[in-house]
């Protein structure tokens, strides 16, 4: 029997929960569920085939372009089965993941329990991607992107730095004037909640004025630790601890170091 019940759960995912045509979904429900079936969510209990069809219609209407995908084969133990799944746009990471647990009776589903995973990963990954995009914009000189990814009232806690997006643009314009080949390779990036921490290097060739230092042609390679706070999809706040002693030593002319 388990040889047929596993595929039945996978068919339920694709032809019932994944079917946007209500009439076709109704036919599939009739073949897969018992007449007195019950569908359990964390805070809701749906009884009967018609109520199940209406519930799924509501789920799919709220998520246009989303599809269900099985995250592996269904597993069956006597009259119980489970199937892990994901739900999200085609060709994109899932927005929701979860697991169905089914109770079978006479080869059909009598009860289906749905468990949703905690949806924290997408936001954290989005925050890390935002910081990576910021670093790339700095390296490429695409500072116009700051209008999209940096908050207008950006608060920079770097010593001597004034707040504001435009101030940040001027800072990196000056830094890229001094180091036109500026690179900020990331060694590690970690995120939790609204914060993203980055350990990166600062590399480049000193070919323009940097503060009071005229161009030396020296290469720099120093490390920095950054902490960003993300708000409403933009960089909102920044802290930094950098190895400025190494950087300034590397900028000294050879005769000044001996």
Question: What labels describe this entry?
Answer:
2 domains; Nuclear Transport Factor 2, Chain: A; alpha+beta; seven-stranded mixed beta sheet; 12 strands; 258 residues
- Compute the CA-based radius of gyration: 28 Å
Structural class: alpha+beta
Number of helices: 8
Instruction: Give the termini separation.
Output: 84 Å
Low-confidence stretches: none
- Shape estimate: elongated
Number of domains: 2
Percentage of residues in strands: 35-45%
Order of helices and strands: HHEEHEEEEEHHEHEEEEHH
Estimated helix fraction:
25-40%
Q: Give the mean pLDDT.
A: 92
- Biggest sheet descriptor: 7 strands, mixed
CATH topology of the largest domain: Nuclear Transport Factor 2, Chain: A
Count of beta strands: 12
CATH architecture of the largest domain: Roll
CATH domain class of the largest domain: Alpha Beta
Overall description:
- The strands form 2 sheets. Strands 1, 2, 3, 4, 5, 6 and 7 form a 7-stranded mixed beta sheet that branches.
- This protein has 2 domains: 115 residues, Nuclear Transport Factor 2, Chain: A (Roll); 136 residues, Nuclear Transport Factor 2, Chain: A (Roll).
- 35% of the residues lie in helices and 37% in strands.
- The longest helix has 20 residues.
- The model has no long low-confidence stretch (mean pLDDT 92).
- The chain is built from 8 helices and 12 strands.
- Strand 5 and strand 6 form a beta hairpin.
- By secondary structure, it is of the alpha+beta class.
